[in-house]
Design a protein that fits this description.
The N terminus is likely disordered. Helix 5 packs antiparallel against helix 7 and helix 6 runs antiparallel to helix 8. By secondary structure, the protein is α+β, with helices and mostly antiparallel strands. The chain folds into three domains: about 120 residues, Periplasmic binding protein-like II (D-Maltodextrin-Binding Protein, domain 2, 3-Layer(aba) Sandwich), CATH 3.40.190; about 100 residues, Dipeptide-binding Protein, domain 1 (Alpha-Beta Complex); about 210 residues, Dipeptide-binding Protein, Domain 3 (Dipeptide-binding Protein, domain 3). The protein has a six-stranded mixed β-sheet with strand order 14-18-13-17-15-16. A four-stranded mixed β-sheet has the order 1-10-9-8, with helices on one face. Strand 8 and strand 9 form a beta hairpin.
Length: about 500
Amino acid sequence: MKKKALFLALLVSVTALCACNGGSSGKKGSEDSVSAVVGITQDLDSLDPHKAVAAGTDEVLFNVFEGLVKPSADGTLVPAVAKDYTIAPDGTSYTFTLRENVKFHNGEVVTADDVVYSVKRCAGLLDDKDPEVVVESALSVISAVEKVGEDTIVISLSEPNTELLGFLTCFIIPEDYKNQESAPVGTGPYKFVSYTPLTSFVVERFDDYYGEQPYLEKVTFKICASNDAAFMELMSGSIDIFPYLTDEQAAQLTEDYNLEVGATNVVQAMFLNNDFGPFADLKVRQALCYAVDKTELLNIVSGGRGHAIGSNMFPNFGVYYNKDLENFYTYQPALAKEMLAEAGYDETNPLTFTVKVPSNYDIHVATAQVLTEQYKKIGVKAEIQLIEWSAWLTDVYRNREYEATIVGLDSALAPSDVVKRYISTAKNNFVNYENAKFDELFAKALASTADSEKVTLYKELQRILTEDAASVYLQDGAKLVAVNKKFTNFLFYPVYVLDLASIKPAE
């Protein structure tokens, strides 16, 4: 949730963790090996991939686990544990043929039973349910997962759904392995070595990986206390790659680093609890949208980089993205003030609320600081409350105990994934949004098997959320990545992942 930076110029004492770097190849079979240290600012919330909630955890575990399919850097879903698949023309079943001799990191060969178990676990279909497993609501449409022969899996659906492939990136794990939470085992290009809470997560190249071998033999994800602490380690040379630079930090990079710029592919917004008294009023929510100067916001937070958005989808969704909504709420502070007055808020009775912001994401903290200043211009008193990430997950996301919050939300490669959280009955509808027309239209979009109809419906769903000002949608932020010049080929993905298998030593 996605995640970046405001440089606060703090003098923080840090402990250096040095990367051990060897020759120029690092490929399997070479005499030399190459290691890298990657700085991250969020601890992992679970090593069991089916229990992880945070996007920051998924971006790291992407290197250890794979699904039947996985995303590529160009935005397509490519075969992974499965070697190919077919989708029934009516969208009611998916058939996967498994790749031969794919191995788990413990040496065991992946079986059809492992795949059936994993998909059922993610879909909440196991008889013996673990309450800590995060059940993917999109998979609730699955009526059966069956093994047909030793290498074929058929997933049957209770209703048509041609978008399910984007959720079948859910990670495949061994059926009978019981130690995922302490020693995770997957099929990815890297295997688990060690984890020290609040310190590091270490992986090494998996020599029996079925695909192309990574160049890096070992990767240490260094868990830093803050963005500033990570940046100081970067400048000292003890971190090789840091993917959460602020604009100010980017300007301070030394000649030892290249700056890579891409999109975060998250929806950053000031999400509003629609059950909080003032935010139950449409005029109040719309006023808060009209009061935001997004140009100023992007200039201050990311040096003008980033993409201003107007609804709940980011631009890399291509044809589904409703670009027309980017300027739906233009900056009109006078109109915003007038609407607040109509709702009963003025100088004698100002609108007051608290914005909870996870303290480890400097881009969200910086955004909150800009917004609270802009809201002062219309007489709104917004107070920032910084909270730890674990507290945000519990208080805001799970328990919905908040008034407003600023974060970034990621998604799977399926347009429904960025929309379904607004369904009235959705468990992750933490903004408490309700609209019967929206619910009806979403069901129609999800059931449609015609691409053109889907595009039209999803664009209309975005429009409804914008017109209702379900939240104050802000930007798909710029991702500024520092990469030591010893390395090349850092890839940006249209989903929130951090692919270390692509990294190569510089020639």
